[in-house]
Amino acid sequence: MWSIAELADVAAAALIEEDRRAAEEQSVRGVDHLAEVELHPVLAAAFGRAGFGVERERRYPAGRAARRETEGDRCDLVLAPGGLAVAPAGGRGTLFTPAAAAGDGMLFWLEVKLAAQFGPEGPNGAWSADLVTRPRQDLRKLAREPAVRHRGLLLVIFSRTPAIIEHDLAIAVGRFADALPCIGFPATRIFPVRDLIGHACGAVSIVPVLAHASAGRAGGRGSRRRPRASDPRGGRASGVPEPGPPGRMTAERPVEPVVEPVPGADLRFDDV
Known about the structure:
- This protein is of the alpha+beta class.
- It has one domain (4-266).
- Helices cover 26% and strands 21% of the residues.
- It is built from four helices and ten strands.
- It has helices at residues 4-24, 36-49, 127-143, 162-179, and strands at 53-59, 74-80, 85-86, 101-102, 108-116, 118-119, 122-123, 150-159, 187-192, 201-209.
- The strands form three sheets. Strands 1-2-5-8-10-9 form a six-stranded mixed beta sheet, with helices on both faces.
- α1 (4-24) crosses α2 (36-49) and α3 crosses α4 (162-179).
């Protein structure tokens, strides 16, 4: 039903278009200036244009027992398969609810996280936390939801070079696999962006939490299976990624001058 490769393509195209729009407006702020919450409407609009039903800040099923609507964890983006709307939470329909609507079990639940190597003031000292610690917290939150079958993390990354993204993302995914019993292989797309604050490229990576993750320990070191054969594009993967390479993340090391700019023509939805 769901292809994370397709979702990654839509998300990457949305950020490319947002950066192009800012360039046409001659804005001094590129797509890499957006805060994490500012990415939500950009991504939601893109998924809607692609034909998915979209709801933002939907409350997780496990949190609906709370009396107040403001209580309980919420998911950043929830998608319905193409042609369907998102059914009201808890099945409470109205006269205006579309007949063709998808319930919790059919939806894809996406938590969005942002990691940028640089900010307007200079290098980001919280790069490791943004790339590993905070995303891992959201993956654990997703894994704790037994009623949610289709789920994943949408990680948006901006960096100086594609090599940094590939290296540091591999470390991050390895650490996710160490902490969680069942995450799948990610689908990643790398693309060029305007270099305004030190970033020459961006990426989106969707890390799925497999349907049987809730049966294990959502936050501990469980029995991790070795990966099986999977789609090389990361579209419908099974198994668990290998731990990432050891050592420090590249972006944590002192920043060296860029000798040559990254040629934009060489970056077209490359897979990691």
